[in-house]
Amino acid sequence: MTDWPYLSAASGPGEVTNRTLRDHARQVVNHYDPAFVETFARATDHLKHIFRTAHDIVIPQGEVVLGMEAVAASLFSPGDRVLNLVSGIFGKWFETFIARAGAEPLEVAVPYDQAIDPEDVRRALRRHPDVGFLAVVHAETPSGTVNPVDDICRIASEAGVITIVDTALGLGSHPFEADAWGVDIAVAGPQKALGGVPGLCPIAVSPRAWEAMARRRPTPLRESYLSLLDWRESWVEKRAFPYTASVSLVYALESVAAQVLEVGLERHIARHTRVGRACRAAVRALGLAPWPARDEIACNAVTTVRTPEGLDAGALVARMRRPYGVKISGGYKELAGVTFRLGHMGVSAHPTHLAALLAVLERSLADLGRSVRLGAGVGAAMALLGEWE
Ligand SMILES: *Cc1c(COP(=O)(O)O)cnc(C)c1O
Question: Do 135 and 82 touch, CB atoms closer than 8 A?
């Protein structure tokens, strides 16, 4: 049997706090127990602060992928045109959900080491005035890049287009302002930069988006695991559930959201910003290159590294895991082999965690025969992490 890792520094999920573990392990109750209903309500209240929204929060009881499928199935119908922004693998994946709902995807795409230019969005919306929806990924986890969703959603919202943002990785690691930016639907996950346990999918929904689901579709989607309207009619209107809630996962989510707010959302994000910058400096000090074309579009929670000539990324991932017990991620789908990923999200957005990750990265690169000066990466990172708080 394989030993468990000492350190999780993958592209998510990451490590969680002892408090999260304790709350997750609380006795299971029926989901209509008043204590549980209050816990669920607290979770949605905390999430409103984190999404920066006054609108409704619903929490389909499945992974973020379920959430994205639910958004597409609940919102789109044949005849709808959806502007899908593609700067990475998750953005491209959403096209499948658009098409499955019978809607027509139109695409603005950039190479996966780039970010979407808001002016391209403006032009595309001018060219296609019949577009009703726009979908964009905030932070693309495989590429380690971030899109300017503030400008993109403002432009779309002013054009009367309903905006959908996958902020699974972005929320908690980059500023995000659902209401101020005109985001109609924001989809997140507890297990990335919020530092929680996977398996739930908090979604913020604007009145305009509810209206589109209920009235714009010829036959609104109801009585389905993919129906967001079921959640409105049960949870939002009656404090009821469309099906049994994943009780223990809700304990963990409520706990994690409360902890983020106790640290302070801005400070939580600032920790990610600083650790992200330090990690990229370390990567460069080791003679490697971050995958994103420019630092301004680099994601704070994951550093995607371009695999250098002559290095086998899979061998590096394996070497760090065994014998050193550090779990990083290889590249995902099309980016397999050409990239590997260092995660520093949630609990791991911390100098101590980063130092251990980088030290083992250096040691493992040396083990694989690359010429690295041991300590160069750790030193470059630590030089940027003074006066940590
Ligand atoms: C993690 C993530 C998801 C969810 O995907 P899983 O692989 O099922 O965890 C969706 N979108 C983005 C941007 C993500 O980072």
Answer: yes
Q: Within a domain: residue 388? A: no
User: Any idea how long the chain is?
Assistant: 389
Distance CA 338, CA 2 (A): 27
On whether both 251 and 342 belong to a single domain, the answer is no
Does the C-beta of 166 come closer than 6 Å to ligand 1?
yes
Ligand 1 contacts CB of residue 12 (under 6 A): yes
Does 216 share its domain with 74? yes
Claim to verify: residue 181 and residue 321 sit in the same structural domain: no
pLDDT, one tens digit per residue, over 336-371 is 999 999 999 999 999 999 999 999 999 999 999 999
How many Cα atoms occupy the beta-carbon half-sphere of 103 within 13 Å? 28
Q: Two tokens at 130?
A: 């019949």
Q: Is residue 387 a contact partner of residue 350, using CB atoms and an 8 Å limit?
A: no
With a 6 A CB cut-off, is 331 part of the ligand 1 pocket? no
The model's pTM: 0.98
Q: What is the pLDDT of residue 218?
A: 78
Query: Ligand 1: does its nearest atom lie under 6 Å from the Cβ of 168?
Result: yes
Residue 247 CB neighbour total at 10 angstroms = 18
The alpha carbon of 167 and the centre of ligand 1 are apart by a number of angstroms equal to 9
How many structural domains is the chain composed of?
A: 2
- Same domain for 275 and 233, yes or no, is no
Query: How many whole angstroms from 90 Cα to the centroid of ligand 1?
Result: 7
